Amino acid sequence: MRHLALPGLIALTFGVGGYYATGEFGLFSTANLLAGAVALGASAATGLRSLGELGAASARRVLAPRLLFFALAVVGGAGLEVAAHRSGSRLDLTATRRYELAPATRKALAELPGTLRMTLYYEALDPRTRRIRMLLREFARAGPVELRERLLDEAAEDVERFEIAFSNSVVVELGPRFEVVERPTEGTLLEAILLLSTPPRTVLDVPRGEGERSPARDDERGYAGLAHALRAEGYRLRERVSAGHPEVPEDTGAVLLLAPERDLRPEAYAALRRYLEGGGRLVALLEPAAPPGLVALLREFGFGLPEGVVVDPASGPVDGAPPGVNPIAFVYAQHPVTRGLNSDRMTFFSIARAVLAARKPTPADRLEALVYTSPRAWISPDVEAVVRGVLPPPPAGARVERTTLAAAGEFPRAGGTARIVVFGDADFASNRYLRALYNLDLVLNAVHWATQREVDITLRPKVITPNQAPLTPRQTLGMLYGLGLLLPELLLIAGAVAWQRRRGA
Questions:
Q1: What is the rounded CA–CA span in Å between residue 383 and residue 399?
Q2: What kind and span of H or E run contains 268?
Q3: Where are the domains of the chain?
Q4: What is the b/e burial string over 388-408, where b = at least 16 CB atoms within 10 angstroms of the residue's CB?
């Protein structure tokens, strides 16, 4: 039983490492910690039986150098910890730089118009407080942030004033205005800062009345999350019933079309065409069954919108759907909309149609594809089967090739230069999928580019939510640290057991 000590120590190391890598006690971390504790306990129980032999001179000669080495290791480790803490130096070797503030957060803190006050309200024995306290200190290092902490039991007046309902809530104050963040993460704190420091300066016109998705709905199919993120970035959403008011108002920064199900009225299409010919901006989120009139209007500007659904078997089965119907994109063009996105920063689409940069209406126009599938993709005309969750085979003569899921164009006209971004999917920006992978960055950066606010294009912190589909980068890493490290851990334990047996032979 004493041979269990080294395998137990290995299991404990992997358990603690898995916790620090993923930030939570998942199945892998918990199983390793329990197995390691049991193994070390059994080894210790066996060792206690031999305590009577420790008084012998031969035992002291063997134990003394080992105990000295152990003591020096403990003292040295503690000394390194104290030195690192006092020096303030930081080293982040994680693949996603999860212990560093995102570029968007640093930019927002650097541009604060005054000192920001962040107050943490917590209960005395809440174990989550340490993590949030460390996060707030990172904010203070990056900008003019004043930190405060208060126990909930001692802050009854503040609890009533700010309507604080949970321990570890953070109240963010800038001048007389404030926001309460009940579940503090870097992403939620950044949104609070942006809401306080970024006044609405761009109007987004959101047509309604033809089955468009709602920016007010907060269920999975709604777009309240996108609306909140846009408001935090300095946009004001103005809904307009296009049937009664077809003309696009003059102060519109861009038109945001959220997957209309029915064709707009002819006068509404004529008004939208006049707006674009006069240098207007449009961000259109389409579905495979997009209205024919809208498809025809976008084709006038050179966008190719073939009928059917993109199937990319390289993506595999995602969110319970057959392989390929929910493509995960990891290839991007060099364009401001996709700045910072690469093979490690993927985006997710749900039952999307292809959007091609087919042809330029005039030589001066610029039309570019943005987001690519793998080279194994093809277009299925059987939309209904795909929606039902059935993957039909490629039709005869189907071209298996890399296709595109989004495109953008600039169109110089007599009234100004129009900018249009078209996505072949609307669900990727819904409440269900907006925070999956880098979807939020893609859609917000498309709006920034369309409204000529390229300075605001950046990568934002990831807001991790439980049971989110598809897997977020952190959940993907969690699987790696779990299943991916299980085999090397077992090999290490087997090697340790073999070494101990040969040494004791």
A1: 17
A2: helix 266-277
A3: 2-90+489-504, 103-194, 198-461
A4: eeebeeeeeeeeeeebbbbbb
